[in-house]
Amino acid sequence: MTTQTLTITRPDDWHLHVRDGEMLGAVLPDTARQFARAIIMPNLKPPVATVELALAYRDRILAALPDEADFEPLMTLYLTEQTTPDDIRQAADNPFVHAVKYYPAGATTNAASGVRDLERVMPVIEEMEKQGLPLLMHGEVTDSEIDIFDREAVFIERHLDGLVKRFPGLPMVFEHITTSAAVDFVLAAPDNVAATITAHHLLLNRNAIFDGGLRPHHYCLPVLKRESNRQSLVKAATSGNPKFFLGTDSAPHPKSAKESDCGCAGVYSALHAMEFYAEVFDDAGALDKLEGFASFHGPDFYRLPRNPDTLTLVAEPQEIPETVDFAVEDGVPLRAGGQTRWSVRY
Ligand code: NCD
Ligand code: ZN
Predict the structure, then answer these.
(1) pLDDT digits over 12-27, tens only?
(2) Given ligand 1 and candidates 15, 27, 138, 221, which is best to mutate, with the most ligand atoms within 8 Å of its CB?
(3) Are 200 and 220 in contact (CB under 8 A)?
(4) Which atom, in ligand 1's list, is nearest to the CA of 175?
(5) 12-269 CATH pick, 3.40.630.180, 3.20.20.140, 3.40.50.720, 3.10.450.50
(6) 224 lines ligand 1 (CB under 6 A)
(7) Which DSSP helix (H) or strand (E) runs through 58?
(8) What's the CA gap between 118 and 208, in Å, rounded?
(9) Over the stretch 129-182, which tens digit does the pLDDT of each residue have?
(10) Ligand 2 is a single-atom ion; what residues have CB below 5 A from it?
């Protein structure tokens, strides 16, 4: 029997953390091997809150790329309560800035500068709507009274529903959705509302955090949810609906920062991202839908051209190392010490 192969238009990653400094140089090649472009998250310290900072960060990313890489970082601005409509006009006029990221203050890694009161940023969001500049949302409330497994659903009720009604012309991406409630919301919303889905939320449910003991490398935000939610995500991702597209949310942290008494949130999935997505689509009997999800729906939503080149996957396993070198320290990739079922053929 010949090995099954799948050639698709080269994919893009619509939600990615690559950090900065030495760690940037260590993690970036994993993404640049597979993906032609990635939406780069702005949650550095200090946050990438202006066009000037975004362009400087872009230069550092380009400088960190291996010589042979063919990869374009798509920059984003971090929305703060100090962001002005003028910042938005500058961003919209700049060919390298593609979106603005909303973090509720304190929601996740480096989110201290996020938005406390959405009403305060309404003039900024109005300008984004005018300019057609996409708003990317970390869709969770941060209220400690709300159960952590319910924070996405409560965000929809308290904030997202109102935002979608108020800004019918604003491209909005509900990032890294994790629940059936989010899938249903996006399906019912108008065409200006889309969502990204990570590989780890498609592969794992919340049991993976407690599998025989506490598994810090499966802790991310939004936190993994119960199996019925995972199944809804798989159904949405493999449906062919253009509202859903690939965003890994690969979020590297040094091993010691994960394996700690207060471990950081984030899964490092970039090493074998496309292999993991291929496995999910294969299991769902939907390999024919992978190209749309990974390579078409994202650029179409962002009004960017689809990539001209291709990526080939083969149904052959590959060993996943126990650790990867993050320069500052080792990191632990998703499914460390295990195997992929698919491999990208380079
Ligand atoms: C991200 C990070 O580490 O920057 N962590 C995560 O668990 N996804 C932040 C984020 O996107 O929430
Ligand atoms: Zn993220």
Answers:
(1) 999 999 999 999 999 9
(2) 221
(3) yes
(4) 11
(5) 3.20.20.140
(6) no
(7) helix 51-64
(8) 34
(9) 999 999 999 999 999 999 999 999 999 999 999 999 999 999 999 999 999 999
(10) 249
